[in-house]
Amino acid sequence: MTIDEKKTIPEHIDDKLFTVKYKCDEETHLKPDQQECKKCAETPCTVVCPANVYEYDKEQDKLLVGFENCLECGACRIICPAGTLDWKYPKSGCGVTFKYS
Amino acid sequence: MEREVVDAVIVGAGPAGITAAYTLAKEGKEVVVLERGDFPGSKNMFGGAIYAQPVAEIFPEFWKSAPVERSNIEHKYALLGDNDGTVISYRNGDHAKEAHYNSFTVIRAKWDRWCAEQAEAAGAFIVPETLVESLIIEDGKVVGVKTEQEEFYAKVTIIADGVNSLLAKQAWDYPEIKPDHVALGIKEVIALPKEKIQDRFNVGEDTGVIYTILGGPMQAMVGLGYVYTNLESVVVGLGITLEDLAKSKTKPYELLNKLKKHPVIEPLLEGGELLEYSAHLIPEGGYKAMPALYKDGVMIAGDAAMLVNNVHSEGTNLAMMSGKLAAQTAIQAINKEDYSANMLSLYRKKLEQSFVLQDLKSYQDVIRTIEKNSKAFLGFYPKKINEFMNQFTAVDSVPKKRKYIKFIGDVFKQRSLSLVTDGIKLANLAGGIILK
After folding, report:
1. CA distance A49 to chain B (A)
2. Second CATH level (architecture) for the domain B180-283
3. What integer is the mean pLDDT of B86-99?
4. Distance of CA B422 to the CA centre of its chain
5. A22 falls within a domain
6. Cβ-nearest to A100 among B177, B245, B276
7. Does the CB of A24 have a partner CB in chain B at under 8 Å?
8. Which residues of B touch A23 (CB under 8 A)?
9. At what angle do helices B355-362 and B316-336 cross, to 10 degrees?
10. Which helix (H) or strand (E) holds B210?
11. Where are the domains of chain B?
12. Across the A/B interface, how many CB contacts are shorter than 8 Å?
């Protein structure tokens, strides 16, 4: 990394998430009901999630969930139009640890 | 085997839970706090400032030993257009002095941990890395909680598990939070050398500045941006109702990227390095969306009880006060050996007598009114103020009189009769706050 690059505050979400400390659970704590997701027109979870956890894959007709990046805010749980997202906290000691926030 | 029953079990080692634990422990009560994170504060994030007076009521002269960053001496309100902005600034030199401290920026990982250490020193037992899975309910009464590993029985349970209170739903008909009753907060902490911060914000070694930001990339949306100064970092963030965010079809971090590029904000951050990105929800339903605050054997405090006054960026102080009052109620209950809902109803009475419910009551309609009129109040008028300032400061050889008549004419044309109703709405809002 050159000095100039270092001094630019990153714009891409992956670079932002790179600053976050995670202890990863192997099993997902976010379980959407894929049948309901198929019917969902807007998939607002893919918009509001601050960690870009959700992506709708049209080819597979499936909501992809990158739970490893979850910041545990709960926005997806509340915005889910069908209210069918099974949202839990990661297991004890797992998930995100904020150090400077 | 007879089961062990402690005086109180508290779920969550945030401001509400820790204040409750500290208050109980100081009275010699046996109290256990269960925290799901690695350490108290590790899952927490907020804008940036705690308030001196309410915190000092619980931890007197905390600034002498607590890890505070900067004492805020200036509050700037920035009304942003697309590429311009009007900033109103209030500075109070007294706020740099111990007798008049107003607020301090803090980093939650350090601050919450310090508060937890005070509770531990008073005798509270804090268990980190422990997720509570459910409440233990017997004969309709809450008698403790169950973690992944074991069960904790208590005379009184205090739920302080934050905005996504999954536990509260198990005890009662907890209203599901609606997308317009909650804001998503995201922020970036950007490292900068001390001297740069002092120069850029015109402050001393341990004084700081708060920016509250309206408009910019959030024009006509129900949301606010902010900037806070830490000792060696600057915080920039925003909070927007989930409803407006979903409607905007813009990812929250893209809005924040735009805010960071705004000409009023960009120079404050230039040359910095991103230390951490974080996110959290803010409960904004207020007085009308609050759940019942107590049941047999259990009380609920802080964000879990939706005790936030978003208009004034107040949350931690309401959390701490509610934790303290829940603990005081628990102490009375334990001393009388009565853990019934009837006994614990004292908690609500104490909250009603304090600023917590009095403020939430006064402000109960404010956010609804702003939401309903966001296009006007957070879009049209801020834009017009910047347009006016632009014309007022421009020197362009157009006669001033013609400019002003055109400006006023445009406002009337664009807003017409709504001008009167907007005025009435604003007057009603102000009147409501005073009368309710």
Report:
1. 7
2. 2-Layer Sandwich (3.30)
3. 95
4. 28
5. no
6. B276
7. no
8. 38
9. 130
10. strand B207-215
11. 5-67+107-177+288-362, 180-283, 366-435
12. 139
Fold of B5-67+107-177+288-362: FAD/NAD(P)-binding domain (3.50.50)
**B105-121, pLDDT tens digit by residue?**
999 999 999 999 999 99
B246 in contact with A, Cβ within 8 Å: yes
Q: How far is CA B420 from CA A39, B333, B424, B425, in A?
A: 45, 53, 6, 9
| CB-CB under 8 Å, B163 with A101 | no
Which residue does chain B place closest to A71, by CA atoms?
B279
Contact B187, B224 (CB under 8 A): no
Query: Which among B107, B129, B163 has the least Cβ separation from residue A92?
Result: B129
B5-67+107-177+288-362 and B180-283: identical CATH topology: no
Is the Cβ of A9 closer than 8 Å to some Cβ of chain B?
yes
Classify B66 as helix, strand or coil: coil
**pTM, rounded to two decimals:** 0.94
CATH number of the domain where residue A55 is located: 3.30.70.20
User: Into how many domains does chain A fold?
Assistant: 1
Tokens of B223: 């949301």
Note the ipTM here: 0.94
Range of the domain at A39: 29-101
